[in-house]
Amino acid sequence: MYEHEGEDVFVVDSHIHLWDASEENVKSDGGEQFIQCFYDYHTGFTPEGEQWSLEEYRKYGPERMARDLFGNAAVDMGIFQPTYLNDFYHTGFNTVDDNAELAEQYPERFLLNGRFDPRDGEPGLRELERQKEEYDVQGVKLYTAEWRGDSKGWRLDSEEAFEFLDKCAELGIENIHPHKGPTIRPLNRDAFDVGDVDDAATSFPELNFVVEHVGLPRLDDFCWIAAQEPNVYGGLAVAAPLAVHRPRKFGEIMGELLFWLGEDRLLFGSDYALWNPDWLVETVMNAELTEEQRDEYGVEFDLETKRKIMGENAAELYDIDIEERKRRFEDDAASREFGIGDGYAAAD
Amino acid sequence: MGADARPAVTSERARRRLRRVTDPELDESIVDLGYLDEVAVDGGRVAVSFTLPTAWCSPAFAWMMATDVRDELDALRDVRDVRVNLRDHVHADEITTGVNDRRSFAETFPDAEDGVSAVRAKLDDKARLARQHEAVGALLEAGLSREQIVSLTPADLDGVGRPAADVAGAPDRSPDGDRESPDDDLACLALRDGAVHVAVEAGPLVRYLEKARETGFLADVDDPLFGTPDGEALTAERFDDVRARTRLASVNMSGQGGVCDALNEARRSKLGRKER
Asked: Does the keyword Phosphoprotein apply (chain A) (predicted)?
């Protein structure tokens, strides 16, 4: 378990992937450009000594992933967010079935999220049922701007999407994670506009909408919607690594998020392997608001707030009993393999 | 001095003019953002190549920047021909050809659902709010009360941003209308009753006026100077909540600026590309 100035912090990394962008799996130029763009994000926001080679980055495999998450006791649990991109990669980029490969080795440590695309129609609904049945998914990751054939994306507030959200509610898939962040490839960027979250969140109060990447570059629209919809949350993937080289901007963004949403509706995510929690958790734990920022926003980014953001809020959404998990982690597969069981025993 | 005696277009002059072109998502000059690869001048011909922070940068944004580069240079005296070259973008060829052939966005991207004007208007609105934040900040800093601030009109700012004798130290406006950043200037603001004169940092006010006029928010000298996100006049009652919204608009733009900046650095070093 992560230790910060003598205090334990239970970390749930709410946004991780096990992807394959190896040259063999790249199907189109889009797939190559996609991983290249990810790599720019990686190098742009990773401290120099921690950067990977592009080869490692294309395909790192389950063993390395487990080591990066648990080897240094940075992360206690992870939530997989699948990204299919079948037009780009022969066997998909990061599918629920790929993710399951690792999750099954450490069943206590991972939660598998599924995905849907309303353009799949009836077979898509059946697939969602399969994901629930096979992996007990409690959430779905959604890419509203994914191109398919002539379609340039879809909206969360469309009739077709509502049919899928109905199905989620019926199956008990409560956590909806729309990617509303940096562009993949929308010709009109508004496929990532956050406006559609508003209506969906109002229409489905029993579901939680975790807007990934806090809408960046639409932080303003996102915060305004989230301030009015209590079931809208912010996922910090992409925002978090700003703390590395741009701590002042990170402080401003955290200030806005804490001002508009409060400390109970923000979830840490590394976006692994975009960034490695092995160093990112420490960076965020050490980040502070300046005195000027604390005055301006009237908020604190202290240990209590960080504990919520780093794990407790995700635990709440995913029904994770942290104390019970700690007891189980004293001697589970990951603790034995990486010698990290003592951290949990000591925390009792 | 007659037109014939004027120096030919120089790359420096072209570059200075290009300071007016902003990345619409960040509301910052593409020159300051380091997007330009080369500004080559040959007589009256100017060729500009630029690279954006990612190959995935929204084609609509890329289009806006490419057309703005073309149009700003077109407006320079003595420029006869402008060539724009967007490099290493998923739609580099379409955009470069479309802009140089003066085709429209819709002609260039027949499968796009909308044109760029709605996106541009939306981003311009955000830029106006972000700039309002800085301008109101400067006025608060100068000691104006919220009541005084909400009662201002463009007429009250008549002298602000004019590089004439009434603003000491302002550089001369060149025949192209381009001038150095006025950010360090102080402006003397005479409040309506004329009884109070205050010195205010001019840069934020000039920047705000420019965007508020460009977006059509300020059409008349007697319009209220500042607005709400919905485009209504700012009132003292709504001052604080609007201030929080404009701060958010400003943090959004500068925060995204931080993201693009890091990507730009990473990408340029990978491509081995330096500005020439």
From this structure: no
Q: Can you give the residue ranges of every domain in chain A?
A: 3-344
Domain B11-113, CATH among 2.60.120.290, 3.30.300.130, 3.40.50.11780, 3.40.50.300: 3.30.300.130
Give B-chain residues touching A186 at CB under 8 angstroms: 58
Note the pLDDT of residue B7.
60
Residues of B within 8 A of A255 (CB-CB) are 251
pLDDT band at B175 (very low <50, low <70, confident <90, very high): very low
What percent of chain B is modeled with pLDDT above 70? 85
Give the long-range contacts of residues B186-190, CB within 8 A, separation 24 or more. Answer: B187/B157, B187/B159, B187/B160, B187/B161, B188/B159, B189/B142, B189/B156, B189/B157, B189/B160, B190/B156
Considering only CB atoms, which residues of chain A are within 8 Å of chain B? 29-30, 33-34, 36-37, 40-41, 43-45, 150, 152, 182-190, 216-220, 223-224, 238-239, 242, 245-246, 249, 252-253, 255-256, 259-260, 296
Residues 6+ apart with CB under 8 A from A53: none
Superfamily of domain A3-344: Metal-dependent hydrolases (3.20.20.140)
> Which of residues A189 and A69 earns the better pLDDT score?
A69
Dihedral sign computed on CA atoms, order B128, B133, B134, B138: positive
Q: Which of B248, B257, B266 sits opposite A40 (nearest CB)?
A: B266
CA distance A222 to chain B (A): 10
In angstroms, how far is CA A17 from the centroid of its own chain? Answer: 9
Please, which pLDDT band fits residue A85 given cuts at 50, 70 and 90?
A: confident
Residue whose C-alpha is closest to residue A267's, from A19, A85, A46, A77: A77
B190, burial (CB in 10 Å: exposed 0-12, middle 13-18, buried 19+):
middle
- The ranges assigned to domains in chain B are 11-113, 117-161+187-254
Mean pLDDT over the full length of chain A: 93
Write down the ipTM of this complex.
0.90
Q: Do A255 and B251 touch (CB under 8 A)?
A: yes
Confidence class for position B77, pLDDT limits 50, 70, 90: confident
Q: Say yes or no for a CB contact (<8 Å) between A256 and B263.
A: no
B109: nearest CA partner in chain A? A187
B251 touches chain A (CB under 8 A): yes
Contacting residues of B for A249, CB less than 8 Å apart: 254-255, 257-258
